[in-house]
Amino acid sequence: MNTVDLPLGVAALAAELAHGELTSEDATRAYLARIAARDPPIRSFIRVLREEALDQARAADARRKTGAGLGLLDGVPIGAKDNIDVAGVPTTGGIALYRDRTAAHDAFVIQRLRAAGAVILGKLNMHEAALGATTANSWFGRCENPHRAGYTPGGSSGGSGAAVAAGFCAGALGTDTLGSVRVPASYCGTAGFKPTFGLVSTRGVLPLSWTLDHVGFLAPCVADLSLLLDACAGFDRESAYARRGPRILVPKRADPANLARLRVGRPADLSAVALEPAVAAAYTRAVAALAARGATIVDVDLSAYDFTRMRREGLLVSEFEAAAIFEKDLAAHPEGFSDELRANLAFGAKQSAMRAAQAYRRLAEVRVLARRVFAAIDVLILPTTPQAAFPFSAPVPADQADLTGLANIVGIPAGSVPFGRNADGLPLSAQVTAPAFEDRLVLDVLATLEQCAS
Question: What CATH fold (topology level) applies to the domain 263-308+362-453?
C-alpha cells in the first residue's frame, strides 16, 4: 500500500478499518514507511517500535475477522511522547541519563489505549524533561517543524506535534504542564487538547510538576481528539491526582451549526500580551466566526490576571517540583543532564519554602478568579500562542506559554485548533477553554472553529 493512500487522522482511519477498506497491518506499514523515508531530517521519533507495532496491527486485524474488535481505535497507530511509559521500552523524558531506563509497566494512558486496540508506533521526541517549548533536544536531536526546516515545532511535546503534522501517525499523546500540547499544536497546525486535570491519569508519566501536569492529545482534527479522550479518560484509583466528574453535573454541549445559546467570553483587553499582528488578526476572525454561528460574545474583565506573571509563577512551581523529582539522579549523574536543564533545576532547588508557598497561593487565587469569570460565560476564547513558529536561530520568546498557562493553573479543559496562516505560510490557531469537566463543550466549539477555518 502506498503511504499517500492513508486517510488523515484517527477518525478517518478508524472508519476505513471498520469498513474493511484497508487493514491495520497495511496502515501500520504505510506509517512506518513514511517515518523511515521522511522523519530523519525532522527527528520527531526517538524510537520506532516497528516489530511490536506490526504484531499489534496483525492482532487487531485478526480480531476484526472474528467480529471481536475492541472498538473504533482498534488497529489505529498512535505515537507516544517519550515521557510516557511503554512496558519494555526506555522512557527517556528527553534526558540522556535515561536512554536505557526501561519501563516495567505501561502508563495508565497506554493501558487504556491498548484496551481500545490502538497500535503503539513508537516514542516521540520532546524538550528535555518537558521543561521548555522548543524541542531543541541536544541529546536526541533537534526536532524540526514539518512546515519549515530550521523552525521550532514548539514543545515540550514537539515530536508529537511534528509527527502528526507530517502524517507519521494517526494521532499522538503529549503532556501539558503550562501549554506543552497546545503550543506545538499551534506551531505545527494540528488540533490539540488538554482535558480537565485528573480526568486522564498521569500515572506512569515521568513527572515535571505533580500539580500542573496533564496528559493530552494531538491529531489532525477535532473528531480525532474526541475519540482519543473517549479511550483514555477514566478514574485511576492508583493515582493521587485522579478525579471523577461530579455526578450532578450535566455537561453542556454546543451544536457547531447553531451556537445561539452559547456565551463566548473574550478578554476586554489583551494588550498585556504582545500578539504578532497575524495572530491578533486570526483571533479576531475566530471570534467573529463564532458570532456568525449565533454565539453571544461577552467581553470579560481579566485585568486581575497577569498573564506574564502567572506564567512565571507556574514555571517556578514546575522548577521547584522538578528539582525534587530529579534530585537524586542529578546529584549522582550530573553529566546525564544538559547544562540548561541543570541550571533550571538548580533555580528550582534554591527557592525557599516561603517563596514556593507564595507561588502556590497565587495559583490558588487564579482558580477563584476563573470561577468568577466563568459565572457569566460558557467558554473563553484566546489566541493559543502570541506568535507563529519561529526559527531556532532567533531568541526564544519568553511569552510562548503566557496564553496557555491559565488552563493548567486552574485545571480546566483547553484545546487549540488551526485557524489560518500568516504571510509566511506558517500555521495560526485559536484556543478555547471552559470550566472543569466541560471537556465536550470545548471540543464542540473547537469543531465549530475547525469548520469555519476550512
Answer: Amidase signature (AS) enzymes (3.90.1300)
